[in-house]
């Protein structure tokens, strides 16, 4: 049977800590036909390589759903839907956090009063504390019980198990002290504030985490925003504007000056100059003619041309860049492998340590209350949130910030290696330059004066939209203060401009334009070669 290896990215919802992502990885890795599964907690994505002749994506999704998480194909989730889901989750967390904080504040205040020895009966009343602690424990904290149930049902333990056990022990121990232990007239030792504060702080962490994840996705959204929304296609001899998603390979598309090129393709007729700075960093438009390839999301500067769509949707260069950034954000750095190994045994180890702590305190001191408090302390301070989130979140932020600044980092491994760099090689302009051309030299040939040459060039380029033409005009106006309009002006797409100034016919542009107009550039070749050797255009 032929092996058909495919790669699928899944969106996994419901993971709360490194133990969750490790559990999903373990379940997927055991499936027949799955070659590798890498789950990223920070991006909530799973990258799965599988043999499509042995297993279907639907089977992989069912396996994830069966252990209490929700999986769906990432490519079926639109960016708008994902944004809506993320904003909905942030709003829900914010509401739960505010309610939990409002209910927790009186409990925390009563604890501070108790520490200072001040007795205010209303705040220390067991019925009052029970009433406001119960909604926090079982309504706001329900998510922890639900996730802990799914984890234990699949024979694993995660952060939610620690939180559920720790807060529940604190809550019911407080009920025991309030209503069943004999305290006489002494102030009762209640720990309702412990369970409530823990849940509130965990919710605060989850809220901040959700907000941070939303910000790291801004880089992807900015890249997606580069794409044209519509395309002008020719069908049955008629021009028709359609959404770019409906373009198919083979469509003939017309692009006019100033418009974004909607998809990748090959020019059929016409010529122009295309701004490819979003792709290459080069500020100078690239000349294009029939037979040349154009890339979607680049900008047509001058002429109108027709091209045939060759790559659309996920196959365009821009889509590949977006996919690379997403994969980089979900990749693992070598140091994360250590954290993953630790997190795999961390929760069971903490449970064992908490049990030992309880037994040690109880057997040595005989103080049951202190033994319970100590065990609860071990459970709640050991939540492995940071262990599983620190490295992947750093990679998400780092690669996202890089993409926003035009730097595409291929993965976490490369990001980690950057701290050991001692030399950087830059291979193109636009990397360390501003991307804004400036005039550096004005060299007249023959008997013409420098000022007059500059004036002719500035007048000819006054109406030009080319970055080099604009630079010439800006330089000329600094020296002459005012630049009159040319008597005639015309742009020659991809080659330069023609103008009539002081009854002189002026051509400014490429060597090809000079050759076509019969202008001899031989006297200037030595000067041009010297300037090019200095890296000047």
Summarize the structure.
By secondary structure, this protein is α+β, with helices and mostly antiparallel strands. Helices cover about 50% and strands about 15% of the residues.
What does this structure look like?
It is built from 19 helices and 16 strands. The protein has helices at 18-29, 57-66, 79-115, 121-124, 126-140, 142-153, 159-179, 192-216, 218-225, 277-280, 317-330, 334-365, 368-381, 385-404, 412-417, 450-460, 467-480, 511-516, 525-533, and strands at residues 5-13, 34-40, 45-51, 70-73, 230-235, 238-243, 252-255, 264-269, 272-275, 286-288, 293-294, 299-300, 305-311, 488-492, 496-501, 504-509. The strands form 4 sheets. The chain has a 6-stranded antiparallel sheet, with no helix packed on it. A 4-stranded antiparallel sheet has the order 2-3-1-4, with helices on one face. Strands 10-9-12 form a 3-stranded antiparallel sheet, with no helix packed on it. Helix 5 runs parallel beside helix 8 and helix 11 (317-330) packs antiparallel against helix 14. The longest helix has 37 residues, at 79-115. The mean pLDDT is 83.
């Amino acid at each position: 049977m032929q092996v058909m290896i495919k790669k699928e990215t899944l969106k996994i919802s419901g993971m709360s800590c490194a133990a969750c992502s490790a559990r999903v990885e373990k379940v997927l890795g055991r499936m027949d036909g799955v070659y590798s599964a890498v789950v990223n907690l920070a991006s909530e994505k799973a990258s799965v390589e599988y043999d499509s002749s042995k297993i279907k994506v639907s089977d992989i999704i069912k396996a994830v759903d069966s252990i209490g998480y929700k999986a769906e194909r990432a490519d079926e989730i639109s960016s708008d839907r994902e944004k809506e889901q993320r904003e909905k989750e942030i709003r829900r967390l914010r509401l739960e956090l505010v309610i939990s904080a409002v209910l927790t504040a009186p409990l925390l205040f009563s604890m501070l009063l108790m520490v200072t020895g001040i007795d205010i009966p209303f705040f220390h009343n067991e019925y009052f504390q029970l009433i406001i602690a119960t909604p926090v424990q079982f309504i706001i904290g329900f998510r922890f019980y639900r996730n802990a149930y799914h984890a234990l049902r699949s024979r694993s333990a995660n952060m939610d198990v620690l939180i559920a056990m720790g807060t529940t022990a604190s809550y019911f121990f407080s009920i025991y002290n309030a209503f069943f232990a004999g305290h006489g007239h002494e102030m009762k030792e209640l720990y309702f504030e412990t369970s409530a504060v823990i849940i509130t702080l965990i919710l605060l962490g989850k809220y901040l985490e959700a907000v941070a994840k939303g910000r790291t996705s801004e880089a992807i959204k900015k890249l997606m925003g580069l794409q044209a929304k519509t395309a002008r296609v020719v069908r049955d001899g008629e021009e028709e504007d359609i959404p770019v998603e409906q373009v198919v390979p083979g469509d003939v598309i017309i692009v006019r000056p100033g418009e974004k090129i909607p998809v990748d393709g090959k020019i059929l007729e016409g010529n122009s100059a295309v701004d490819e700075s979003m792709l290459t960093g080069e500020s100078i438009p690239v000349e294009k003619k029939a037979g040349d390839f154009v890339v979607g999301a680049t900008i047509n500067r001058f002429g109108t041309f027709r091209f045939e769509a060759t790559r659309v949707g996920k196959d365009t260069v821009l889509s590949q860049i977006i996919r690379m950034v997403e994969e980089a954000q979900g990749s693992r750095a070598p140091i994360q492998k250590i954290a993953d190994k630790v997190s795999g045994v961390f929760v069971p180890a903490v449970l064992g340590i908490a049990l030992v702590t309880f037994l040690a305190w109880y057997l040595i001191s005989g103080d049951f209350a202190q033994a319970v408090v100590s065990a609860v302390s071990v459970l709640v301070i050991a939540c492995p949130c940071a262990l599983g989130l620190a490295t992947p979140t750093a990679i998400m932020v780092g690669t996202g910030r890089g993409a926003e600044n035009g730097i595409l980092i291929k993965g976490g491994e490369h990001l980690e290696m950057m701290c050991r760099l001692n030399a950087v090689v830059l291979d193109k302009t636009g990397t360390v330059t501003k991307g804004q051309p400036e005039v550096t030299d004005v060299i007249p040939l023959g008997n013409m004066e420098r000022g007059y040459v500059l004036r002719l060039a500035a007048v000819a380029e006054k109406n030009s939209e080319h970055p080099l033409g604009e630079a010439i005009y800006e330089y000329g106006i600094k020296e002459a203060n005012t630049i009159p309009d040319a008597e005639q002006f015309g742009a020659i797409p991809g080659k330069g401009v023609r103008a009539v100034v002081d009854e002189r016919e002026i051509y400014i542009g490429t060597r090809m334009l000079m050759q076509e107009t019969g202008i001899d550039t031989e006297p200037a070749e030595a000067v041009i070669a010297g300037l090019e050797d200095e890296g000047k255009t």
